[in-house]
Amino acid sequence: MPGPLEGCRVIELGHIMSGPVCGLMLADMGADVIKVEKPAGDDTRRMLPPDIHGESAAYMMMNRNKRGIVLNLRDEDGRAALRRLVDGADVLIENYRLGTMEKMGLGYDTLRESNPGLIYAEISGFGRSGPYAQRAGFDLIAQGMSGLMSITGEDEGRPPVKVGAPLTDITAGLLAAMGVSAAYAHRLQTGQGQKVDTSLFEAGIIHTYWQSAIAFATGVSPGPMGSAHPLNAPYQAFETRDGWINVGAANQTNWLRLLEITGALELGEDPRFSDNRQRMEHRHALEECLNAVFKTRTTADWLARMEQGGLPAGPVLTIRQMQQDPQAMARDMVVDLEHPVAGPVQTLGLPVKFSSTPGGVRDPAPLLGQHTRAVLTEVGYDATQIDALLASGAAIQTED
Q1: CA-based angle 179:128:47, to the nearest 5?
Q2: Which residue, 81, 168, 329, 393, shows the most beta carbons closer than 10 Å to its own?
Q3: What are the tens digits of pLDDT across the range 216-244?
Q4: Cβ distance 20 to 37 under 8 Å?
Q5: DSSP state of 103
Q6: Is the confidence at residue 88, as pLDDT, over 80?
């Protein structure tokens, strides 16, 4: 079944993470994403270990559903081939530093001359305008500067902690995919292309909605709270007899349910916990009381009781436990693929479901230069011309 972006052709000049995330989302939704790699390949090909029969697990995760070609963009013939590809494309994705594409004659103003409908997506550390536009950006830097690291961790006075996942890289890729989809809808209506510009910095900022609301209202920057919520209590992880459980008693109704389920009715009579304002002011005391209660039973016991009582709760799973969870399996978030070198591999699925155009994971990540000949043929190169590009090193094709 085709995805909702069936018929959309995307040229991805993305590397490592944010650009490839954008391309991955579009590919999963049905777009024909052609990943253009340098002769040495995307740097994730060398992020080893782990590997599966020599193929980088990191590369395979980020680049499924894409076709892969290799062009040497330091070579004029390689750049000419890319321009021909872009002339027939709907979208170009790039996450290079400011000015890199322009130096190669591949900037937006140049490419739109022959393809005025082109959607040109740029992902950078700080965006293409402003005083930091020239700066290189990485997830760690963006997490620090966006404020995320100031609100992540157990408590005040401890070293700063970043979110375990490369949150700003992934979110910037998702924002770019959202922007591309919106620009594509506009182009279908008007025929007009445009630039889409987002950054890791902004991707981090949008995760501070609650904390920014607090800072705007009070003039004070909130700090880290562990697993607790900055606006509601109790809403956090508690230690059980054999592990941890997350409990979402984030309003008065659920607070009363929690008291019934746990049998800790005396906490309902304590004026420190009478309403959300009081519970937030006395959060540490509340945590101490509830931790003592939760340590009396196992995680599974508490989960069964809370599900029966209608209180939102869930275990704290490891990554492997998450991958094996029946809900993740039922939602097709773990997908089996057959890779031409690595053999049977697994990847994560498309997190958005469509009733009429479902999309999904179809193909494994390409080998380096796997589709070079096929793609160049599609844009008008004949066999002799392709052989010449391969012989000169302007392009690379994986040997069959």
Answers
A1: 75
A2: 168
A3: 999 999 999 999 999 999 999 999 999 99
A4: no
A5: H
A6: yes
Judge whether 68 and 42 are in contact, CB under 8 Å.
Answer: no
| CATH of 9-206+325-396 among 3.40.50.10540, 3.80.10.10, 3.40.50.12780, 2.30.30.100 | 3.40.50.10540
| Among candidate residues 220, 361, 355, 245, the one with its CA nearest the CA of residue 305 | 245
**The pair of three-digit structure tokens given for residue 144, joined into one six-digit string:** 């620090």
Distance of CA 69 to the CA centre of its chain: 23
pLDDT at 62: 97
Amino acid at 300: A
Q: Which residue has the tokens 């022959």?
A: 114
DSSP string, 261-297: HHT-GGGGG-GGGSSHHHHHHTHHHHHHHHHHHHTTS
Q: Of these residues, 42, 90, 169, 197, which one is catalytic? A: 169
169 a catalytic residue? yes
Tell me, yes or no, if the pTM score tops 0.85: yes
Residues forming a β-bridge with 91: 10, 119
Q: Does 244-315 carry CATH code 3.90.1170.30?
A: no
What is the dihedral sign for C-alpha 229, 234, 239, 243?
Answer: negative
